[in-house]
Amino acid sequence: MLPKSMVMRDAVDGAEPTRLDLTDLERRYGLPYMVIHRSDLHAIFLRACHRAGVDLVTDATVIGHENLAPGARVRLADGRTDQARIAIAAAGAHGWSVRGRRRAGSG
């Protein structure tokens, strides 16, 4: 979805105190402002993983990671470790990888 604007409305009377024009963002940043439902985005990622033969691991809690010359290794809460060419942390803004960077002072 490519919205043309973002509208802020008063919760009580529905008045429109401000409107942000999103059409200018493409000129400024080179790409349009796009919106996609989270489940649709997840479905796109899942199909791409299946097509590429990626082992998508869910329901696992990552407690640490290390970068290696051939890729990355992750430590899981159940004691397992897993290694791959690429490891993607998709836990959100409050996930372990963000917290770890903040503790280390690099984020």
Structural overview:
- A three-stranded antiparallel sheet has the order 3-4-5, covered by helices on one side.
- Helices cover 28% and strands 23% of the residues.
- The C terminus is likely disordered.
- By secondary structure, the protein is of the alpha+beta class.
- It is built from three helices and five strands, in the order E-E-H-H-E-E-E-H.
Topology readout:
Blueprint: E1 5-8, E2 18-21, H1 24-29, H2 38-52, E3 62-68, E4 71-76, E5 81-84, H3 96-104
Antiparallel strand pairs: 1-2, 3-4, 4-5
Strand content: 15-25%
Order of helices and strands: EEHHEEEH
Helix content: 25-40%
The separation of the N and C termini measures 31 Å
Please give the largest β-sheet: 3 strands, antiparallel
Spatial order of the strands in the main sheet? 3-4-5
Please count the beta strands (DSSP E, at least 2 residues each): 5
Q: Mean pLDDT, nearest integer? A: 83
Supply Rg: 20 Å
How would the global form be characterised? elongated
Structural class by helix and strand composition:
alpha+beta
Low-confidence stretches: 102-107
Number of discrete helical segments: 3
